[in-house]
Structure formats: structure tokens, C-alpha cells
Amino acid sequence: MQKDQSFTRRRLLLSGAAALGAAGTAGAVLAVGGEETAGTAAAPAGGPQARQALRPSAFRLQPLTGYGPPPAAPRRLKVRTEPILHVSGRGRNMVLTFDDGPHPEYTPHILDTLAKYDVRAMFFVCGECVVENRELLARMAEEGHVVGNHTWTHPLLTTLSRGAVRSEMESTSDAIEDAYGRPPEWFRAPYGAWNRAAFQLGAEMGMEPMGWTVDTTDWEEPGTSTIVDRVESGAAPGVVVLSHDAGGDRSQTVRAIREWLPHLIDSGYHLTVPRRRL
Ligand code: ZN
Predict the structure, then answer these.
(1) What is the DSSP letter of 86?
(2) Distance between CA atoms of residues 136 and 107, nearest Å
(3) Mean per-residue pLDDT pooled into runs of 10, the chain (278 residues)
(4) Could you tell me the domains of the chain?
(5) Which end of the chain is more exposed for a tag (fewer CB within 10 A), N or C?
(6) How far does the centroid of ligand 1 lie from the alpha carbon of residue 100, in Å?
């Protein structure tokens, strides 16, 4: 038994080292299962055999050699052809998203309202605004909000070369990582104008494309009550709401959320942020 345990420990160490390699995660998970088998008192006869069966070490030890796929090798990459437009409605979930910021005047008010009701939201930020308002990204991280990439200058991506799209996206992810503390896991194309390059590059950079279900069209400045009506009439389980915290005078947006957010909560909605499905 003692011998088995030390053997298992050594296996775990090996797996831990493998996890440092490119493909070690699966190996690490298998190793935890192996430990449970070995830890059972009076190990069943099948135990050692089971470990033996897991042993085909060509698979498990391969990462120890340090040979990962070369950077240019094609990877199994899930590339979507359309953005995510809604989330699971279980638990009457809805997602609030704010685009084009952060803005030093409007974003803090929106963050204050979200904090008042203990609600987390998504902010799709532009790199050129991030570098001017780094403290707002730090506040978003501190308060549990999710920050997504909305490009550097908010161009129409469908008019740009692939290289220009890449530059817009990469520079913004770098700025977010610097100010927010983590690289973004979500991307939203300006104007909702997606193209193949945006989906492909987003996937390569580890980001999921997020669209929306309900557009408040607050950028038209239609009046606070109109914005409130649009959110409340569009509310439904799984809905993703689009608002803007920059790009113009957003005082109507700021006032509207103070009305519609408590109304949604009173109606039983759970305002949340989505989890990544990797
Ligand atoms: Zn935008």
C-alpha cells in the first residue's frame, strides 16, 4: 500500500510537470482519478491493473519531452460563424452590456448603479478609451464586471484588411490585460458588423463573439423614458441588453438604468454575466 501511494505521488508529480507543457491538463485530471483508486483501503484487485491500464505513457508522458506543436501548426480551433445572441434563460437570467467606453463622466455613474443593486455586467471597451481611463478598468475588475474587447478605434471591420483587424483587436486585448489584470475572453464587433476575420482572429485570441438580443438604441438619445420602455418591453429570460456608456452624451442612459434596473430585479430577473464554455 505504502508503495502504491508513493507510486501514485510520483505519478502526480509527473502529471503536474506535464501540466506545465502544452497538453498536460487532461493528464492531470486522469491522475487525480488514479489517486482516488489508490487511496481506497484494501485496494481491490482491479486497482493496480486499472493504473496499469492508464499507463500507456506514450500519451501521458509526451508533454514531458517539451515538444508542443509548432506555433504555425493548425490547431483545433472552434470558430463561430455568428455571434452569441442570447444566453441561457434558466433562473430568469439576463445579461447587461455597455459598449464604447469607458468614459470618465458616464461610466462611474453606471458602475455606481450596478453596485447599488449588487449586479455584475459586461463592458465592451475600446482600447483608445482604456488607456485614458485605466482606473475604471481596475474598478471593473475590483467589482466583478466582465470586460470584453470592442477594438481600439471602433472601425467598421468589414472595410479593413485582415492585418488591420488583427492590430485593432490585439492592441485592445493588450491594453485590457494591462489595466484590468486579465486578457478579455469576449469580443464584440463595432456596429455588430462581423466578418470572417473577426470570428477567426477572436477565436485565435481566446475570445467568444458576443452579440445582443435587445438594442436600447440609446445612442440616438431618444429620451430616458423611451430607453426604459425599450429595456422593459424587451426583457425576457436569456436576453442580452445593449447600452452605451460612451460615444456621445449618455446622460439619458445613466438616468434610464436607475429606473429600469430596479424594475427588472423586482420582476424576478437575475442580472448576471455569462460563463465561458471552453
Ligand atoms: Zn460600439
Answers:
(1) B
(2) 8
(3) 41 36 29 28 40 39 47 72 93 97 98 98 98 98 98 98 98 98 98 97 97 97 98 98 98 98 98 78
(4) 93-272 (3.20.20.370)
(5) C
(6) 5
